[in-house]
């Protein structure tokens, strides 16, 4: 068995460490000392959310043994809305995100908007119809707005949410 074992985040914070006598973990993380003594080096992350997305490095006696990336599965929502209504799409991360759209009749319409902090930039067709607080609002929907909207974290290139939207029809 190793004399010491630690797991640290990509920011360099040691989240959990064990030795022959005990294990210590930061809040939100847990390593069982009994399991460690049996050779089980599992780390439990409690309350997983987008802030826990990162690379984690396992070290034994100071030597790196593996890197693991934690990714969160994206939200997948189907919405049926009527013309003139608004669509609300949750943005659950603080990193910059972009809104992309693939339509029913047009393959990929590409990036519609980009959000950095509280600043939002959209293509002309959408700039007066989109607002942002903690969710992205697309107002005054038209039947031509039907399609699949994707919210993607632009730093990590991870899809945060997928919204399949039908305006005025059936899903």
UniProtKB/TrEMBL annotation:
This is Immunoglobulin subtype domain-containing protein. It comes from Electrophorus voltai.
């Amino acid at each position: 068995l190793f004399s010491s074992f630690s797991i640290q985040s990509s920011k360099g914070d040691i989240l959990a460490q064990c030795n022959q006598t005990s294990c210590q973990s930061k809040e939100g993380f847990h390593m069982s000392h009994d399991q460690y003594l049996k050779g089980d080096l599992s780390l439990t992350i409690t309350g997983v959310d987008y802030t826990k997305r990162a690379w984690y490095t396992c070290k034994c006696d100071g030597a790196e043994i593996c890197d693991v990336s934690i990714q969160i599965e994206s939200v997948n929502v189907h919405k049926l809305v009527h013309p003139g209504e608004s669509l609300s799409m949750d943005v659950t991360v603080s990193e910059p995100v972009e809104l992309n759209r693939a339509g029913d009749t047009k393959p990929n319409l590409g990036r519609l908007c980009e959000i950095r902090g509280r600043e939002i930039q959209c293509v002309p067709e959408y700039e007066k119809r989109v607002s942002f607080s903690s969710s992205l609002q697309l107002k005054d929907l038209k039947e031509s707005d039907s399609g699949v909207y994707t919210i993607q974290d632009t730093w990590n290139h991870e899809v945060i949410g997928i919204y399949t939207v039908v305006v005025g029809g059936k899903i």
